[in-house]
Design a protein that fits this description.
The chain contains four helices and seven strands, in the order βαβββββαααβ. It has 184 residues and is of the alpha+beta class. The protein has a five-stranded antiparallel sheet. Strands 1-7 form a two-stranded parallel sheet. The model has no long low-confidence stretch (mean pLDDT 96).
Length: 184
C-alpha cells in the first residue's frame, strides 16, 4: 500500500510520536508499506511514520542506492523503532537537506557528525549504535520527525523568511509533487 506523504503544515508532523510495542497491529505490513511508499516517491532515502500520518516512533532508512559512492552503505537498510538519540557528538557539519514532506525546498542544516542511538529493530531486538557522517545526518533528520520537528526548524530566521512564500504554498496545497501527498 502506498501511503500519501503528509506535507508541511499538517498537524501530525508537529506531534511527538508515541512508542509502540512488538504487538503493534500489522507492524510488518506497515514497515513494508513504508518502504514501498518511500521507493515510490523516487527521492527518499528515509521516511518516518508521522510523514505518512501515523504518529508512532518508527522510521526507516535505505542508503543502499548510495553504495556506489560509499561502500559502507551497501546493505544499509534499517528500521528504527522507539529510537532515542542519547548522544550527539563530534563536529558541527553544515549540509543541504531536503524532505519529502517539504517538497521543492532544500536548505543548509547544521548537525553533529556523530551520534549514538538506542532503538529496537523490526524484530524488537535492542541496539545501541554509533553512526557518523552522512548516515548520522539522515538518522537525525528522520529522528526529528518522531520528535515533532522538520528540518527547516533548524535554519536561520532569515532563511525561513526567504522561503516563507514557498511554505505558504505548500500549506495551501499549491505544490507539484510526483508522489501521492496530503496537505493540512
Amino acid at each position: 500500500m502506498i501511503y500519501p506523504i503528509h506535507l508541511y503544515g499538517h498537524p501530525v508532523l508537529r506531534k511527538v510520536a508515541t512508542p509502540i510495542s512488538k504487538d503493534y497491529p500489522g507492524l510488518s505490513q506497515f514497515i513494508a508499506d513504508m518502504f514501498e511508499t518511500m521507493y515510490k516517491s523516487e527521492d527518499g532515502i528515509g521516511l518516518a511514520a508521522p510523514q505518512v500520518g501515523i504518529s508512532v516512533r518508527l522510521f526507516i532508512i535505505d542508503l543502499t542506492i548510495l553504495a556506489d559512492d560509499d561502500a559502507s552503505f551497501s546493505g544499509f537498510k534499517k528500521v528504527f523503532i522507539n529510537a532515542e538519540i542519547v548522544e550527539r557528538i563530534g563536529n558541527d557539519v553544515s549540509k543541504e537537506e531536503g524532505c519529502l514532506s517539504i517538497p521543492g525546498i532544500n536548505e543548509t542544516v547544521t548537525r553533529k557528525d556523530k551520534i549514538r542511538i538506542q532503538y529496537v529493530d523490526e524484530n524488537f531486538v535492542a541496539h545501541d549504535e554509533v553512526y557518523e557522517g552522512f548516515a548520522a545526518r539522515v538518522i537525525q533528520h528522520e529522528y526529528d520527525h518522531i520528535e515533532g520537528h522538520v528540518f527547516i526548524d533548524s535554519i536561520s530566521p532569515i532563511r525561513r523568511q526567504l522561503i516563507k512564500s514557498k511554505l505558504t504554498n505548500i500549506v495551501k496545497g499549491k505544490v507539484n509533487c510526483k508522489y501521492k501527498h496530503k496537505t493540512a
